[in-house]
Amino acid sequence: MFIEALITLIHVLIFVYWLGGDLGAFYTSRFLINTETETSHQMMALKVVNDVDMAPRTALILALPTGLSLAFIKSWIQIPFVLLIAIIAFSLVWLVIAWKLHLSHGKASNNLKNLDFAIRYGAITLLTIISILGLVGKTETPLFLNLKMLILAGCISLGLYIRVVLKPLGSAIAQLNGPNNSSAKSAIADTLNKARPLVLGIWALLLSAAILGLWLPTNF
Q1: Domain locations in the chain as residue ranges
Q2: Which residues have CB under 8 Å from 169's CB, separation 6+?
Q3: Smallest Cα–Cα separation from 68: which of 164, 146, 169?
Q4: How is 76-125 classified by DSSP, letter by letter?
Q5: CB-CB contact of 56 with 80 (8 Å)
Q6: Is there a contact between 64 and 87 (Cβ–Cβ < 8 Å)?
Q7: Whole-prediction pTM value?
Q8: Whether the Cβ atoms of residue 56 and residue 21 lie closer than 8 Å to each other
Q9: Handedness of CA 37, 41, 42, 48 (dihedral sign)
């Protein structure tokens, strides 16, 4: 079935761009962590990291609608078609919000930022509740889908925590071209080093989700 093959391809590409984009941003961030890197090169690295990071951010948002669509087509879940369309439409709206925040270069309104946070917290809550209900047998959702939804909630949670850890980054970057250049570089390095284990945590969750998707559908 062409539609099934197409959605499967899109879902696989989401995993590829999520992990690949994260790897690219992770590697480029080494130039920000190195305090010996010239300021101009650090600013260029910062722009690359910021742009490349939109691949995993986009993938995170599209993981749910594509995954649900694939599960619906394969009859792994039984939900009204109207509900599936609503989830897809809502995800696209969320994607537009995420890209608008990115393109605003930090100048977006607080209302838009708060809306994005609210959506993420809401997604974490719903995914966690639905997956737990499935795990305790209150729904007929397959085990691997319950676990993948729980993993997605974990990825979103880690992403929010990374934002908290990276909060001091803005003020440090603003001081790169000032008299406190050395202190700013050290602050950037310290902040990014704190975030790196969290990124590795997301990678571990992603690989777990990939293994579940490849193995469990034929077993559970």
Answers
A1: 2-218
A2: 188, 191, 192
A3: 146
A4: SS---HHHHHHHHHHHHHHHHHHHHHHHTTT-S-HHHHHHHHHHHHHHHH
A5: no
A6: yes
A7: 0.92
A8: yes
A9: negative
Which tens digit of pLDDT belongs to each residue from 167-220?
A: 888 888 888 777 767 888 888 889 999 999 999 999 999 999 999 988 765 555
Instruction: Please give the full DSSP string across 131-195, using - where no structure is assigned.
Output: HHHHHTTSS---HHHHHHHHHHHHHHHHHHHHHHHTTTHHHHHHTTTSTTHHHHHHHHHHHHHHH
Residues 100, 106: Cα–Cα separation, whole Å? 10
SS3 91: helix
Tokens matching residue 83: 């509900």
Q: DSSP string covering 57-83, please?
A: HHHHHHHHHHHHHHHHHTTSS---HHH
User: Of the given ranges (37-46, 49-58, 151-160), which has the lowest mean pLDDT?
Assistant: 37-46
The DSSP secondary-structure symbol of 29 reads T
154: helix, coil or strand? helix
Q: Return the sign of the alpha-carbon dihedral for residues 180, 32, 18, 151.
A: negative
pLDDT in tens, 94-117: 999 999 999 987 788 889 999 999
